[in-house]
Amino acid sequence: MERARGPRGARRALGRLLEAVLADRAEANAVFDILAVLQAEDPEEIQDAVRACSRLFGALLERGELFVGQLPPEETVMAGSQGANRKYKVWMRHRYRSCCNRLAELLAHPSFQVKAVVDGLLSPEEDCSLLLSQFCSYLEHHDLRYHTMRAAADTVARVADAHAEVPLAFWNNVFTLLSAVSLPRQESDVANFYVKHAELSDKWKVTHLKEHRKAFQLMWLGFLKHKLPLSLYKKVLVIMHESILPHLAQPSLMIDFLTRAYDVGGAISLLALNGLFILIHEHNLEYPDFYRKLYGLLDPSVFHVKYRARFFQLADLFLSSSHLPAYLVAAFAKRLARLALTAPPEALLMVLPFICNLLRRHPACRVLVHRPRGPELDADPYDPDEEDPAQSRALESSLWELQALQRHYHPEVSKAASVISQALSLPEASIAPLLELTAFEVFERDLKKKWPEAVPLEFIPPQGLLGRRGDLCAQHFSLG
């Protein structure tokens, strides 16, 4: 092909060649000129050629003008006595194979803008998020999505076997691709195909939703069976309940990953319990240690970490069933009450209504507040070191901790703790507005309060810090 000057000229020339090949089989040899541009040095020319090849072979596939099946040698067919139509299809299929081979070579092209196939997208060395974001726009086509899932599973297995320690870039690339895959909900929705067909065959796996679900499951399980970076554990678990579990052919197969994730600790353990909770309630999974593991996550750190809101949101969901045994609910209420003794005010404003809601849902646990003169700390039968809530003896104790919090220095905390001494109203208190409450917001709220004009002040001059005479504060700040 005579090289046209300038990118627009080259693009127009490719367009004329494309139209010629599609309009007349006698012009089929012009496909060599199109493929020749794939060998160009200029990335823009290569992109134009890739687009032209996509349009050309996409149209030929739609028109049924490419040979389908085990491809025979080109020389044998062309030298044989077979019909011209078969010879054309075989010949053009070989040109298609040449195009695919060249596209595979372009995976290592220095330009990030040249689109490639899955094996090149999942680079072990480079961050391909930009290229992946462009490629994922094609996943709305069900045939492309199906073959992408199959290819991704194969690539993950191959790269993981080839590396003693898989690079972080590879895992990030894989998650970027896998998290962009979503499946339709109904069989009738599997209808958007990139390669158009006059009639769909039931023998094609790509037309069946159950085959998509199998490929989806194979892809995710193949990814999650490997030891992943902690950052990816959290990302996977955040989307697990909405984007992964509903589309698996057998959701219970995710139990191994979720169990391993729980053992990581911290926020990852909590998010893993969310997935396990779904398997228990929606897929009849037997997991007797669920509430014991949740109970084990209750320690002083839950009031101070950034995932506090997520923790109590999920804990509220897990403890919402009215069929839970009284001893279990009592153990959670008692454990939270004990931890509340050292919690900051912003956390207390959320956890106190949380405890009251547990008592509203489970009247059998209200015995904990009907012992107002319950045991003191040294005589409390509750064992805070017991890991099994069934053995903690919480139901024999009382919530004396809340009575102590009624004398808290912050008036709002004192007020919230005093609710427990009153008849609990039937409607539960909503804790949603309190989940994200911060110390700064509590402080700001106090500043905006309107106080009475006359405020009683201390009239006895202070003699020192906390009443100690002659201390440094008295000397340097003239308190005495």
Describe the overall structure.
By secondary structure, this protein is mainly α. Among the domains are: 1-114, no CATH class; 294-449; 456-480, no CATH class. It has helices at 6-23, 30-37, 43-62, 74-79, 84-105, 118-121, 129-135, 142-162, 168-178, 209-224, 230-244, 255-262, 266-283, 290-296, 308-318, 326-340, 345-361, 400-405, 411-418, 439-447, 472-477. It is elongated. The relative contact order is 0.05.
Key features of this structure:
single chain; 480 residues; mainly alpha; 21 helices; 53% helix; elongated
List the helices and strands and how they pair.
Layout: H1 6-23, H2 30-37, H3 43-62, H4 74-79, H5 84-105, H6 118-121, H7 129-135, H8 142-162, H9 168-178, H10 209-224, H11 230-244, H12 255-262, H13 266-283, H14 290-296, H15 308-318, H16 326-340, H17 345-361, H18 400-405, H19 411-418, H20 439-447, H21 472-477
